[in-house]
Amino acid sequence: MTGAGILTRAADTAGHRHVDRGVLRALRARPAARVGFVFAAVLLLAAVAGPWVLPDPDLPDYTRQLAPPSAQNLLGTDQSGRDLLARSVAGARSSLGAAVVVMALSALIGLVLGTIAGAVGGTADAVLTRITDVLLGLPTLVLTLAVVGVLGPGFANLLLAMAVTSWAGLARIARSAALGAWQRPDVIAARMAGIGPARAVLGHVLPGVTAHVSVAATLGLGEAVLALGGLSFLGLGAQPPTAEWGTMLAAGRETFAHAPWQLVGPGVGLVLAVAAATLIGDALRDVTDPERRR
Amino acid sequence: MSAVVRRLGQAVITLAAAGALVFGMLAVTPGDSAQRVLTARGVQEPTPAAVAAVRAELRLDDPLPVRFGRWAGDAVRGDLGVSWLTGRPVSAEFAERLPATLRLTAAALALAVGLALVLGTAAALGAGRWPDTLSRTIALVFLVVPSFVLGVVLLDVLVVRAGLGRVIADGTWATVFLPALVLALGSVATWSRVLRTSLLEAGSAAHLRVAAARGTSRTRRLLVHQMPNAIAPFLTMVGLGTASLIGGAAIVESVFTWPGVGRFTVEAINARDMPVIVGFTMVAVVAYVVASLVIDLVCAWIDPRLREPR
Fold it and tell me: Could you tell me which of A75, A51, A49, A52 has the C-alpha nearest to residue A64?
């Protein structure tokens, strides 16, 4: 690193951007990651464009209950005669949206606590690390069930429960990133140049930590979709009129033997979402972890 | 020896912290506990006297630390309180259902370990060739199909349409295969990948090239020389995964109407039956902590390098 520009953020961000471009290129070279990106693009496109193209997902048509797939309803209809394609696409919006909210909340908690632990050190670090370790030493799904039990079933409560039980891994990542950044030459130079600790953290440590945590949180989206679907399927999350994949599967169970097409939309949606996150995540780990590069 | 003591102490601390956490959640639960006990018992608009009677009965007016001490003491002795819904001791309700859950998780564990050993070993033996690709693809499919989707499909296709097995699971060994398989698949994916990676890592050691040069067969190298070195990370994953099977069991039990603790707890969550929810959490946490403790001790027994305190 050269002396000039060491204190400016421009040098830092330019370096980051350079690395990111290399990672993206390496990812694109991997077929598995490309498949993952295609899945993600399909889901996003459906979620964004769906409402303009498809009929109202909540509009019942009691003359067409449990109709098999046809030109009019490509994936058939459910027990209230609602179009299942429209509902599956609406489900993509609520499931993916909810997963993003969960991971954003837990990334925020992890970012704040991890950065404090890494940059402040001392007692704060010891206490926060102990809490993080205990949380990491407990089964997340069980804790989520417990918090839902306390708050009561419901979509918003489920999101909250998942966020407060899944931040520990992200906090650990944030802590080690903050610890590393705090000892970087440019941050030490900035501190020596008289920049206060708060400003050093906000201006020089936080950007790098945020990058690390947001990558990890993005990779957690697949698991979040899975947990949201599973718990909604159990009736602990989204409630019946809402078009959500887990809830749709649960609602279709009674009539599933006669109308198996009810499973296609939510099932495919869940598989695509989890596959996209897994494929991209695996490839990203292979690309960025030198030990796994073979 | 000191490493063992240290590890035991760590387990106790985790349990104590988890207990405080769970009790703390109970304490911050919105709404009046006595009111909710009465609602759970079906009393819609209780008189103030009834509420006061319940408060006295549950001794809710004591200071929080006193209540925590009493709760923790009872929990250590196996007394998890009384279900708000059924009025029976939570431990009695669990004792009735725990055998079914243990049968399910034990069967799932055996299936998962077996499948992961086969897939992981095949992938490591044929690294970079078709067995590796096949194993990776199978693992990916297992990973991305959610258990509740697979469970619903299997129930419809195999049980209802093809007439194999029974629709209503009764919690015995006769009906355990399908739910156990569904519960196992997600773990198989991760475990087989971990086994493959550590087998390959163990295979790159210098003494294996010597063994190969002396004419030791590929299979013997793998089973006698690589497996013992590679098994510790695999066992760690299995230990942690076993306990998380208990969380997954709640979902699978509900899909297959398996009469276990997990399904009972899901019903309790819908009814806001707090003692049952708290009891389930503590049982699962204890299982998790004990499992990871046992695995760490087993790993230290297999691998002498792990015995020294770091």
Answer: A75
